[in-house]
Amino acid sequence: MNRYWTLSGKPIGAWPEADTFELREGPIPSPGPGQALTRTIYISLDPYQWAYKRRGIDTPSAPCHARTIAQVIESRMEGFAPGDLVFNTNGWAEYGLMGEGVARPSYMIPRKLDPAQGRISQAVGVLGMLGLTAYAGMILMARPKAGETVVVSAASGGVGQIAGQLARLRGARVVGIAGREAKCRFVTEELGFDACVSHLSPTFAEDLRAACPTGIDVYFENVGGAVFEAVLPLFNPGARMTICGLIAHYGDEGGADARAALMAKGQAVFAARGVSVKDLFVGDFVEGHHDTFLRDVAPLVASGQVKYREDIRQGVETVPACFAEMLRGDNFGKMLVQVGPDPTL
Ligand SMILES: NC(=O)c1ccc[n+]([C@@H]2O[C@H](COP(=O)([O-])OP(=O)(O)OC[C@H]3O[C@@H](n4cnc5c(N)ncnc54)[C@H](OP(=O)(O)O)[C@@H]3O)[C@@H](O)[C@H]2O)c1
Q1: 253: pLDDT confidence band, cut at 50, 70 and 90?
Q2: Per the domain annotation, does 297 fall within a domain?
Q3: d(Cα 134, Cα 32) in Å, to the nearest integer?
Q4: 11: domain range?
């Protein structure tokens, strides 16, 4: 049997609750022509998945969407054979189909993985969409220069840890913003950021100012809200800001447009100091930049010049609880749930 999580159909509140999801059991699907059946190994839990649920992209009958690492069990899909390890989108499920007619976001293209390139779980993280997000938003868009001050919010998370390390390798002085003390220590001591301040501190805005004595040249925005408000007065003339995500607002009521609110709040400073603000959508970079990104970043990960922390939980039963923990910052590193054996370990 295939166990999978769907939306329960109960009204969806600001943040996930115990009755938002339902664990179901159904037969393992059979692959049709052009399809392959795969067994899920790792489920990636990402902030954007909450938007899928709140905006009705996930529906109550189907498994909730997620990017996954899986192994092919049976194949009628050209180029894929039983035993192959793949990136695909099985969702919050133990088994899933990929290939012809299987719905997925257009830029999440199933691909075979080469375990020699890095741990297979990293293909949904530093060697996959999160790494590409950090690379695109930092290196291709913000273009940090040696000696500049770069600030990264959600700095210990999946995207933030990579974005900050890439800027540091370009010679920038990098300041992280994270929550708990242990996360801040990890950001400086393990990842090598020059400083890290906690947004949980009552003196957060002053701490950030003290950590950026010459102002901020680049801001990689993952959060919004009070974190953005503390960053705003510190922008230098000609600073660049990449809006990667606004996780503090993913529970806002009534589809409030967090980006528009942020732009309105920042408008006067942006105009007076010539701050350029760019929006990032990783899907725009998959086709043109994925291969270059992997060529550049995979060796840095393999050599340990870019470190990457994962928070891997166990068992399909735990998925909704882990998802809620990730949204409120109780993950420490990129959140994944392992739901089946990893043959590479
Ligand atoms: N633009 C794109 O194409 C794209 C692609 C991928 C991801 N993203 C975005 O990138 C951001 C990071 O995603 P991720 O997958 O790497 O997640 P993550 O950073 O691993 O996990 C989320 C982290 O956000 C922080 N956080 C949550 N609520 C917060 C709040 N109210 N104030 C301050 N910090 C808060 C928490 O860290 P602390 O405990 O340190 O606060 C939490 O651990 C998200 O905004 C996501 O939507 C965008």
Answers
A1: confident
A2: no
A3: 37
A4: 2-124+309-338
